[in-house]
Amino acid sequence: MTVVTLYITTFILFICIDFFGLSYIVKPVFTQRIAPLMRDSFAVLPAIAFYAFFIFVLLWFVSLPALTQGKTFLWVFANAALIGAVAYGTYEFTNLAILKDWTWRMVWTDVIWGTVLTAVSATLGLWVTRALIG
User: Fold this and answer.
1) How many whole angstroms separate alpha carbon 73 and alpha carbon 87?
2) CB-neighbour burial class of residue 35 (10 A; exposed 0-12, middle 13-18, buried 19+)
3) 19 contact partners, CB below 8 Å, separation of at least 6
4) 68-103 burial code (b ≥16 CB/10 A, e <16)
């Protein structure tokens, strides 16, 4: 039950925080350069598929070891930030390499956002789970 609590908590936090970031931080930057390519509303199925898998990976490599081995919140934050930077960096630097209208501003906005989002979500998810299970 603890793993389910950790997963659901981290998943909900990630989605809620990302909704804010996508709406007010990332979207305005991307709209300036690639507005014609952007959907009016996001496609739910691919978004949920990414979130579900990404949170699983985050738990596997960071949150579960922290929970079972008593790692500190600083350890969680740092390791989750690394996973976020790799994931978002892979997407952004690939786009920068192959798409002509991609900009450094788009890259840094999304990489920084994804890094912070992942670190905060994992850390808060673990904190809430530890608080709930005692």
Assistant:
1) 21
2) exposed
3) none
4) eeebeeebbbebbbebbbebbeeebeebeeeeeebb
Token pair, residue 96, equals 């920068």
Which among 25, 116, 130, 122 is positioned nearest to 76, based on CA atoms?
122
Residue type at 86 in one-letter notation = V
Kindly report, residue by residue over 25-51, the tens digit of the pLDDT.
Answer: 999 999 999 999 999 988 999 999 999
Cα separation of the two ends of the chain: 13
Instruction: Enumerate residues 6+ apart whose C-beta is below 8 A from 84.
Output: 114, 115, 116, 117, 118, 119
For 104-128, what is each residue's pLDDT tens digit? Answer: 999 999 999 999 999 999 999 999 9
Whether residue 77 contacts residue 119, with contact meaning beta carbons closer than 8 Å, is answered with: yes
